[in-house]
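Q: Hi! First time doing this. I have a protein sequence and I read that you can turn it into a structure. Is that right? Here it is:
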Amino acid sequence: MKLGDYYLERDRSYDRARVHFEAIAVEENRDDVLRAEATLKTGICFYHARNYGKCFQIMRDVIESFPVSAQVNQAYYYIGLGHFQLGHYSRAIAALEKVGTSLSDEDGDGARLEAGKRFFVKIEDADLAILDPGESIEVQAVTTNGDEERFKCFPVGRNVRLVLGSIPSRLGQPQKQNGVLDVRGGDEVRVTYVDQHTANEEVDQPVISTVAVVGDGQVMITDGAFRESLRGVVLDKAVNVRISDPDHDVSDSADKLIAVIEVHRRKTAGELEAEAAASAARDETDAPAATPAAEDIADAILEDPVEIDRFKLIDRVEVTLTEVPMVLQLVTEHTDSNLPAPSGGQSQEPVDNDADSDSPAVEVADSIHTGVFQAVVSLAKTVEVVADDGQLQALPGDEIRVIYVDEINSGEGLAELQARARCLEGNIGGVRVTRAQISNEELRVQTRLKTADALTQIGNRYKEFGLKKKADEKYRLALRECEEIMVDVRKLKGSLLEEAYVQLWHVYFEMDQLNLAAAMCQRLQTEFPSSGFVDDALLQLGEVARTQGDLNRAIGIFNRLVGMQTSQLRGEAQFGIAECYEQMADGAAGNASAQLRDRSFQEYKKVFDQFPTSGRVGEAVAKMAEHYYQQKDYQRAVDTFETVLESHPDAKFLDVILFNYGRCLYRMDRKPAARRRFEQLIGEFPESPLASDAKKISEALAQGGF
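A: Yes, that's right. Below is the predicted 3D structure, encoded as structure tokens:
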């Protein structure tokens, strides 16, 4: 796992990382926690390698095989990101809305709800094993503040006795049945589930659980806008303090809380020596008459070493912070290669936790419910300290400490929270490295290759957003980085030369210079026949040939890849073969076209039969269904469409599948069912070019009474 993490996070060698994760994810491994994590990271490797079909399949395996693990949230997250990259925005939204809706057994103490976070309910009951995956049960949640909400819990799989449900919570005045649990500090939530049949043969017995509402405090020393956390404060200016703690939001008005701000100064060497001597003298006074052995003295020091605080308290101010109204906003993260776990951390801004409900998260007039408290304290530069004057006195190098005691939190007991900053003179400015000198030749080449890779990735992002000019500029810079070091790379040889070929191949491919990309792939195969990148190179070489219309050559290249028994891309190559025959059929006429379409169908069927774990299975099955439709075998087409929709929810061209599905049902005179499929297309893929035609057909069917 550590090797896989290194290659994934530090080296970004996704193929190498995947090998280690796949070794852990095998069924022989009985550690489900490790298997879930390794399976998830295998999918992440495919995501970064831009093999989204395989990524989707593995992430769905995580959701199905480990339904109550913490990895389920991340699986939905990457499914959403993958669909976003492909431009499937409706499916991206549907997946991202499910992030945060899964709960593991280790997700904290079930007797507490942290205000502003999603509230989960997990119910275990043997009777629930009869529920189908689409069925649900309803529970009721009532707060002591007066809010009352009902929401549904769904089974985590087939024939299981466990159901999960969730509802977002937020600070605010109670508004019943708005889809959000409105809470405030000190509330309790009473959850009621009706057990229809108990072990004692009683019926409709309410099962009640009470949960306390708590809030985990956060302390920050911020800039003047109370947004960014600072590690330094400027003398003769203000110290801005921000504390977030929902526990103290107990009324509709601006509530208050108290914290302490202290100034600490580093002790001099003489003070430290004097304190150490005084401590030693106390130890001698308290020591027994008998002289202990040297070993006993050493053991005592090791077991209980004396710690001397190197700072001393100079000044202290007790400050009252006031709750502030703030515009609630949904904070989103745009991430690239180093994607954080979606369930980790909290934003520094008040976040609209109602992102997946229909009720807008706005403050009711004349009320403040943010749980965010702010205060400003003056900081003067002076040697003399004046007590109880309401401001802090400090010198450069002193340390400011904001201390807040969080009495009620998700943990046990009191929690003392601190934020620290160093006192500085002048202004706090950014530090920027303009040029780095690297002496080691190999390290210098590696750095240039990493720079080229980063520029290529930036170019890819520009291309995704339609900014072709900026993308081409980044690709040219990446190409220049590679070309400038090729003489040195050829001298060093080995893995660096291999990486350089791979990087050049990627740049040429993204720049649509397909001939140069093909030449680079060929060179990689020739000079590094055992390279782990060869199958990737073959796949792209085949794609280049297919794009250029050299279909027979493309089929030959794809067949070579299909014959590589250890490659993970064999299914992709088989799909490429089928696409080539389909492309041939489009360019032929008469019997030749029909024969080529039949051959294309057989090649697509091989993807389904021989490579069931391929990320292209859904698309292959969709192509098979389209063939059945062209042959007017509507029943087999409908059965195939059902297989795609049920088993491959992330397949490409689902809008085309739904459109053809509706057409088949219409031809079979099942017009109400056909209308439902057209409406599903309109609802799930409003951006599809087929949506307008589907809308016209649906409206015509509605006018006909279907």
